[in-house]
Every structure is written in structure tokens, then in C-alpha cells.
């Protein structure tokens, strides 16, 4: 590069960064520079923080300058295609490796209670992601209220255990069935809707469920939630700390330890998640799975070919909801306490983000996205209130940099001749 | 009767606020076909900026009369418009032409960013603002019940109508409005005919944010509270209004807003306050099942 070319680039980068800093000044001068505080007497007053505004503007200037001078030239050098191909190659081995790690995780030295709890959380989101993937990734129905079915599952178990004394193992299928029933119930009125209309109705449905849970105090305890939900037993053997006769530790003749239950819960959710994955992968090759994918690609063509749109959509909703119901029952038994606060829209948004960031339709991609998002969220625990800010920013950044998700290609369900992977940009978008 | 009349007044003034926000949703949806999920949070930012402006004026001893209100509105519109512009530039423009779910996820991320930015910069506590505009006109008296049209409600109705009149003039009479309508019909063709579509889309966001900030200011003055989470539920209801009125239709957005406001107010007045949101969403579901394109929406023609 000639010196004059370099000088021109630096100059334009400086101007660009200056403009960005000016915009940042406009954004932050009031919102950061003047903070509204509530005085002890109850009235509001303003506190000035000009130094922070200056720092933020300098930060924006520096970041913008850095991206213009260093990051962008590298991005445009154009090896993104090759790296994407490499990534999907590695993905074929990555899935089994990930599964192996997940299977032995509780016995890896250095993995304590905290790490296992985090593992349980991540696996719950992986399971929810795989469940939602059936609805969004396969059938192409954009669902923004998925957390409602999660809530139905959780409350089903909590209420059945509380009022009828049923055990977890009886409630688990019941919670799934009830959630699936609600899935069909929601599915019926929205059969005719497409795309964003469907999205907003599912969102509204999720909110309706949450508001009802919040206000039906006699049944659900309202905002106080339900506590004292029975913990799961090892096929009838409780994990009691006393280690008395009939308990898990006594039966197997081992020292009672609180980690038994955590390890059991870990394998329970791992099993449930793998079940979700297995069903989703198998059903993709069944006629109904192919009908879902056909529906996602072109609803009109489906109708012309005699596919029953009603059944196809309703089974997608029901199956997706059923897995959310399982996950909900698991959540209730793990927490032993549930309240409507756990089932807000943000949960639906996180699950949908996991599915989209993973690359719609890719099972391994969703698992990686859940690990990155939920694990990363835990990693930034020390940031306290900045954590959600970073989380939202990361969502925007990942979308801008990799709009097709982490795994941008997938294997077609039906192929003529040899197997090959196709780029995700060739796959239908799911207009619902 | 008098009670119903009072509810009618309350419902209309609330519905106008929803209508102002709904216009922003419907305008962006009409042009680039995406749900701008962060729009409700832009409304919240508008409320906060006007809160700061009001507090500045109070500490300067100038918070009196219509001129002060007008000044607050102008400050809030200008700064909130900058937020609208930035959101589009950072989160949506790089994704133009990408697949349909990408901007939606990006918008949800932006909504989280805005909420938490305000939580960090302004604190998580609810900010109570003392009523700035009090009093009203007595319309009718029935026994002990007085039907009152408060000055605040007059302000809401007058300023909403004024803002919407300016907006309608902008869309129907100016070159910018023509460009916006052209982009809405066919973005590629508009670009071929020499319209700077990126600039037009930016301006749609700026105008939408300015309208949302007016709604934010009015909401703050009417209800006297602001907090970082207020944008979500109001945003969802405004989007509901836009869908109900027929998304893409500007008069439809205002009509939908009025309907949602009226339904919500009458439901709270005669049935239960707790379930008022359920009523609004329930109506949305019913409306979409029977009128899938909304009240004033265009029938979508599907080309095969």
C-alpha cells in the first residue's frame, strides 16, 4: 500500500470515528450525564456525571477507529467461506465428542456442585432449544411464546404433586401430555396465520398464560408461586441426607452425600435432552417430518400435493410443546419452587435466540449456541447489572457477524444420489 | 352513563398514546417487513429523556405553561430520534437482505440492550414524577359522580392530533413521504428510480422514534412514573394495535391504538384490572382469527 493510500485510510477512519463519537455524545449526554435519583423525601433530583460521558465517547471513538483500521480490512480478505466449510467439517466429529464429554462430566475431577448445576442449566436450555427447533427450524412456525408450554409443564407437575400427591415419574408424562394439549389448543386458532402475525399471537398467548398464573392466586399462589415441590426420587428411593432405610444411599450401601441428587438430576436432564434430540432426528425422516420441512419451504405447494396442513402444523406445535412440558416438569422438581417470574417473555426470546444462533435446524449448532449463551452468561457473573447488557449486545453482534447462525449449513433430509451438505441460505425461511 | 362517558374519555386518551407508538411499528413493518422489537424500548427511552428534561426545567424554575411542555417534547423528540437512528444503523442495516429471522433476533437483542442500558445508567428503581398538569373541565354531573376531562387528557388529545397531522402531511405531501411510500411498495424498484432507500429507511426510524418519544412524554406526564421495563408491555400492546388495524396501514395503526385503549379501559372499569392485558391480547387473537389482515389492512395476494 502506498503511503498516501495509508494516510487517506487513516484520515477517513479518523473522520468516521469522530462522527461515531459525536453520535455517542448525543446518545449519552442526557441518559448517562444526568442521572435521576430519588431523594429520601421522595422527590426526584438530577446528579451529573460528565466524566462518564467523556469516557464513553472516548471508548466509542477508540473502538470505531480500531475496527476501521484493523478488523475490517482483515474481514474483507475473504477466507470466511473456507472457515465456514472447515467448521461444518469439524461439526461432524464435534457432536459425538460433545456427547462424550457430557456423559462423563460428573466424574471429571475438579467438577464440583457449581459446575454440575451450570451443566444442568445449560442442558435444560439445550433441550428447550431442540424442542423449539421442531416448531421453528423444521416446521417454520415462528413461536415467540414457547415459554408458556414450559410453564404449563412446570405448573402441571407442581399442582399434581401438591393436590394429588403424584410422584415425579407419573407426572413427567402427564406434564408433557398437558403441554402438548395446550400446544394444540394454541395451534387451532393460529392455523391460518403466517409469519409475524403468528409470532405476535404466540407472544400474546405466552403473556396470557403468565398473567393468569400471576393472578389466579387460589390455584397457583400468584406471585408467591408454589414452594415445597417434591424432589425427584431414584425410582422410588429418595435422596435423603439421613441415609435411613429405603433411601438411595442405604439401598446401594454408600455414604449419603448431597451430590448424589445433583448427579442424578444431571443425568435425568441429559437423558431427557437426548430423548428430544433422538425424536427430532428420527421424526425428520418420517413422512410427518418431511411434511414439516416441505411446509416450511412452501405452504401452497404442500397443499397442492395433498399434505394435510392442519395435522402437520398441529403435530409440530404439540410435539414441540410436549418437550417444553417435560423440561418444565424437570425445572419444577429441580428448583422445588416455581413462580411466574421464571416464565417471562425474555425466556422465550433466549430460547429462540439459541435456536437461531445455532443455525436453524442444526442439532449440534443449537447445543453449541446454548453452551455459549448460557455458559457465557454465567461467565460474566461478576459484571452484575452489566451482564444483561453484554448478553443483549452479544446477541446483536453474533447476528450481524453470522446471520445464518454458528452452523450455517445442514444435511438435507432427502437426497438424490450422494450425500452433500447445503448452505443454509438456500433453505426456506419459514414464513409460517 | 356518566361512568361510561368517563371511561370513554380515559380510553381515548390512552388509545392515542398506543396509536402514536403503533404508527412507528407499522411504518417500519411496511417498509422493511420486520417487527422492530426495540420500538417499545425507544418509547421508554423517550419517557426517560423527557423526565430528565422536565427535571432540568424544574431545577431552573421554568417548568410552567405550554411553552415548557413544548420544549420538553422537542428535546425528547430530538434525542430519542437519535436513538432510533442508531438502533437502525447498528442492529438492522447490516442485516438488510439477510434472512427473515436475523433482524428479529437482532431486534430482541437491541431491546435487551436498551432496557439494561437504562437500568445501568438511570437505576432500576421506578421514578415517580409529581403531577405537572392538574385540574380539568367538568363535563357532566350525575349524582356524586363527576365526568371530568382533565387538562392532561386535553393535552394528550391535542398533541397527538397535532403530531399525527404533521406526520400525515409529511407522508402524503412531501418528497420524503413519496419516497417512503415508494419504498413500501417496491424497495428494489424505488432504488432503481434513484431513491436513496437506506436514507429513507433511516428517516422512517427517526420519525417513528420521534412519535414514540411524544407518546413517552405524554405517558410520563399522565401516569407519573418511568422505569426501564415500561417499554415491553406498552410496546407489545402497541404492536397489537398495529396488527389489529392492519399492519402497514397508518390510519389503521391509530384506529387499532384507539380500540386497544378503549377495550383495556372498559375491561378494567367493568370486569377486572388484573386481566386487562389478557383482554387486549384475547381481542387480538380473535381479531386475527376472523380478520387475518386486520381492520384496514390490504388483502395479501399470494403469487405462486
Automatic annotation (TrEMBL), chain A:
Subcellular location: Cell membrane
Superkingdom to which the source organism belongs: Bacteria
Entry keywords, A to Z: Cell membrane, Membrane, Transmembrane, Transmembrane helix
Keyword Transmembrane helix: yes
One Pfam family of this chain: BPD_transp_2
Keyword match Transmembrane: yes
CDD domains for this protein: TM_PBP1_LivM_like
Transmembrane portions of the chain: 20-38, 50-71, 83-108, 120-142, 154-185, 197-217, 263-281, 314-337, 349-374, 386-403
Annotated signal sequence range: none
Membrane topology, record value: Multi-pass membrane protein
Domain spans labelled High-affinity branched-chain amino acid transport system permease LivHM N-terminal: 13-104
NCBIfam families, sorted: PRK11301.1
Name of the protein in question: High-affinity branched-chain amino acid ABC transporter permease LivM
Organism: Falsiroseomonas selenitidurans
Organism phylogeny: Bacteria, Pseudomonadati, Pseudomonadota, Alphaproteobacteria, Acetobacterales
UniProtKB/TrEMBL annotation, chain B:
A Pfam family assignment: BPD_transp_2
Annotated organism of origin: Falsiroseomonas selenitidurans
Protein name in the entry: Branched-chain amino acid ABC transporter permease LivH
Alphabetical keyword list: Amino-acid transport, Cell inner membrane, Cell membrane, Membrane, Transmembrane, Transmembrane helix, Transport
UniProt subcellular location: Cell membrane
Membrane topology, record value: Multi-pass membrane protein
Chain segments annotated as transmembrane: 12-35, 42-62, 68-87, 150-171, 201-222, 279-297
The family this protein is said to belong to: Belongs to the binding-protein-dependent transport system permease family. LivHM subfamily.
Top-level lineage group: Bacteria
Amino acid at each position: 500500500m502506498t503511503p498516501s493510500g495509508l494516510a487517506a485510510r487513516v484520515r477517513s477512519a479518523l473522520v468516521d470515528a469522530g462522527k461515531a463519537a459525536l453520535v455517542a455524545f448525543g446518545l449519552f449526554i442526557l441518559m448517562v450525564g444526568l442521572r435521576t435519583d430519588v431523594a429520601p423525601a421522595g422527590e426526584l433530583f438530577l446528579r451529573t456525571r460528565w466524566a462518564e460521558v467523556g469516557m464513553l465517547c472516548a471508548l466509542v471513538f477508540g473502538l470505531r477507529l480500531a475496527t476501521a483500521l484493523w478488523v475490517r480490512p482483515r474481514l474483507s480478505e475473504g477466507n470466511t467461506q473456507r472457515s465456514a466449510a472447515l467448521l461444518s467439517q469439524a461439526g461432524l466429529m464435534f457432536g459425538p465428542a460433545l456427547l462424550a464429554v457430557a456423559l462423563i462430566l460428573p466424574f471429571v475431577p475438579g467438577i464440583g456442585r457449581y459446575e454440575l448445576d451450570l451443566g444442568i442449566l445449560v442442558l435444560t436450555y439445550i433441550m428447550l432449544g431442540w424442542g423449539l427447533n421442531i416448531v421453528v427450524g423444521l416446521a417454520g412456525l415462528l413461536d415467540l411464546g414457547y415459554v408458556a408450554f414450559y410453564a404449563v409443564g412446570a405448573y402441571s407437575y407442581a399442582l399434581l404433586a401438591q393436590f394429588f400427591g403424584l410422584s415425579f415419574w407419573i407426572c413427567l408424562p402427564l406434564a408433557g401430555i398437558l403441554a402438548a394439549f395446550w400446544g394444540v389448543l394454541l395451534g387451532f386458532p393460529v392455523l391460518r396465520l403466517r409469519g409475524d402475525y403468528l409470532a405476535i399471537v404466540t407472544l400474546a398467548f405466552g403473556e396470557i398464560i403468565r398473567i393468569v398464573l400471576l393472578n389466579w392466586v387460589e390455584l397457583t399462589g400468584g406471585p408467591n408461586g408454589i414452594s415445597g415441590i417434591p424432589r425427584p426420587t431414584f425410582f422410588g428411593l429418595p435422596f435423603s441426607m439421613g441415609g435411613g432405610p429405603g433411601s438411595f444411599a442405604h439401598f446401594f450401601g454408600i455414604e449419603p452425600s448431597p451430590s448424589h441428587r445433583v448427579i442424578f438430576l444431571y443425568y435425568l436432564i441429559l437423558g431427557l435432552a437426548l430423548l428430544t434430540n433422538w425424536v427430532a432426528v428420527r421424526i425428520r425422516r418420517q413422512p410427518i417430518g418431511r411434511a414439516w420441512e416441505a411446509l416450511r419451504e412452501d405452504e401452497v405447494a404442500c397443499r397442492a400435493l395433498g399434505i394435510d396442513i392442519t395435522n402437520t402444523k398441529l403435530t409440530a406445535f404439540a410435539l414441540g410443546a410436549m418437550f417444553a412440558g417435560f423440561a418444565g416438569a424437570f425445572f419444577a422438581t429441580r428448583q422445588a419452587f416455581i413462580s411466574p417470574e421464571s416464565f417471562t417473555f425474555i425466556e422465550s426470546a433466549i430460547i429462540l435466540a439459541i435456536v437461531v444462533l445455532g443455525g436453524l435446524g442444526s442439532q449440534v449448532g443449537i447445543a453449541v449456541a446454548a453452551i455459549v449463551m448460557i455458559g457465557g452468561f454465567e461467565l460474566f457473573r461478576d459484571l452484575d447489572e452489566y451482564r444483561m447488557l453484554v448478553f443483549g449486545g452479544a446477541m446483536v453482534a453474533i447476528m450481524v457477524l453470522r446471520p445464518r447462525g454458528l452452523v450455517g449449513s445442514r444435511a438435507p433430509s432427502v437426497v438424490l444420489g450422494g450425500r452433500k451438505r447445503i448452505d443454509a441460505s438456500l433453505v426456506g425461511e419459514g414464513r409460517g | 352513563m356518566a361512568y361510561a362517558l368517563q371511561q370513554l374519555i380515559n380510553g381515548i386518551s390512552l388509545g392515542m398514546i398506543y396509536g402514536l407508538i403503533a404508527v412507528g411499528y407499522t411504518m417500519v413493518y411496511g417498509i422493511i417487513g420486520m417487527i422492530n422489537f426495540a420500538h417499545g424500548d425507544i418509547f421508554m427511552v423517550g419517557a426517560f429523556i423527557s423526565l430528565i428534561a422536565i427535571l432540568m426545567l424544574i431545577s431552573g424554575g421554568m417548568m410552567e405553561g405550554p411553552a415548557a411542555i413544548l420544549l420538553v417534547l422537542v428535546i425528547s423528540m430530538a434525542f430519542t430520534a437519535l436513538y432510533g437512528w442508531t438502533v437502525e444503523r447498528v442492529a438492522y442495516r447490516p442485516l438488510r437482505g439477510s434472512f427473515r429471522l436475523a433482524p428479529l433476533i437482532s431486534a430482541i437483542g437491541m431491546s435487551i440492550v436498551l432496557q439494561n442500558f437504562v437500568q445501568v445508567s438511570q437505576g432500576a428503581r421506578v421514578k415517580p414524577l409529581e403531577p405537572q398538569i392538574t385540574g380539568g373541565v367538568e363535563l357532566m354531573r350525575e349524582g356524586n359522580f363527576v365526568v371530568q376531562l382533565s387538562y392532561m387528557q386535553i393535552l394528550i388529545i391535542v398533541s397527538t392530533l397535532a403530531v399525527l397531522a404533521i406526520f400525515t402531511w409529511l407522508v402524503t405531501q412531501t418528497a420524503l413521504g413519496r419516497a417512503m411510500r415508494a419504498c413500501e411498495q417496491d424497495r428494489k424498484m424505488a432504488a432503481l428510480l434513484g431513491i436513496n432507500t437506506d436514507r429513507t429507511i433511516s428517516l422512517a426510524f427517526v420519525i417513528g422514534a420521534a412519535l414514540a418519544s411524544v407518546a413517552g412524554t405524554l405517558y410520563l406526564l399522565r401516569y407519573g412514573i418511568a422505569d426501564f421495563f415500561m417499554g415491553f408491555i406498552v410496546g407489545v400492546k402497541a404492536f397489537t394495535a398495529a396488527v389489529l388495524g392492519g399492519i402497514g396501514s397508518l390510519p389503521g395503526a391509530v384506529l387499532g391504538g384507539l380500540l386497544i385503549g378503549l377495550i383495556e379501559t372498559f375491561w378494567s372499569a367493568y370486569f377486572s384490572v388484573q386481566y386487562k392485558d389478557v383482554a387486549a391480547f384475547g381481542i387480538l387473537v380473535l381479531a386475527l382469527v376472523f380478520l387475518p389482515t386486520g381492520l384496514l389492512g390490504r388483502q395479501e395476494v399470494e403469487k405462486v
